[in-house]
Amino acid sequence: MSDYHPDLTRVLIPADTIQARVQELAHQIDSDFEGVDHVYLVGILKGAFIFLADLARQLRCPHSVDFMALSSYGKTTSSGAVRILMDLREPIEGQHVIIVEDIVDTGHTLDYLYQVLKGRNPASLHTCVLVRKVRQGLDFPVDYLGFEIPDVWVVGYGLDFADRFRTLPFIAEMKGDQILS
Ligand code: PRP
């Protein structure tokens, strides 16, 4: 780990494990959407860009890709206000939409986004998340989930600390004292 950075303590999910799970998720989506003429993937920037790129390239069902950018405040509070910084380019009414996220932590971001997109009357709306933190009292429902992880700070495969480490091919745990400092 220290080859990469002294603040990274251990690999939580190795690259080959991630790739195998992404392939499984893609197969599951292909099977569930068999016969559907088009699936609209919505990636949430920045964190989801790598997961979405790998997932989309494994999908066989016809699909297109778009992105949204959100900003969230008060992650440690129960309010967790979320704001749209960049919206989709097209209306999603009548579309089969899958929200693609790298991580569900408090669940505020996905909860907010789900309600917003639901209000735009898609034909169907699903969620696909690479990792969900196991946190007491929080169990945001996810349709396609890669991994459950402990409530630690993680980086890599799209996930960052101060915008660093996003392009690591694996997911690693970061030292707690770095996060507090
Ligand atoms: C991260 C992640 C999710 C959100 C999850 O985004 O990509 O969008 O936090 O947290 P929540 O479940 O507590 O709402 P972040 O705001 O760090 O932006 P980034 O994707 O650009 O890193």
Please write out the topology.
Blueprint: E1 8-13, H1 15-32, E2 39-45, H2 49-58, E3 63-72, E4 82-86, E5 96-104, H3 108-118, E6 124-133, E7 144-149, E8 154-155, E9 171-174, H4 176-180
Parallel strand pairs: 2-3, 2-5, 5-6, 6-7
Antiparallel strand pairs: 1-9, 3-4, 8-9
1-O-pyrophosphono-5-O-phosphono-alpha-D-ribofuranose is lined by residues 44-47, 72, 75, 101-109, 160.
Strand order of the largest sheet: 4-3-2-5-6-7
Structural class: alpha/beta
Number of helices: 4
Strand segment count: 9
Q: What are the distinct ligands in this entry? A: 1-O-pyrophosphono-5-O-phosphono-alpha-D-ribofuranose
Cα shape:
globular
Largest sheet: 6 strands, mixed
Radius of gyration: 16 Å
Binned strand content: 25-35%
Distance between the termini: 21 Å
Could you tell me the mean pLDDT? 91
List segments where confidence is low: pLDDT < 50 over at least 5 consecutive residues. none
The arrangement of helices and strands along the chain is EHEHEEEHEEEEH
Helicity range = 10-25%
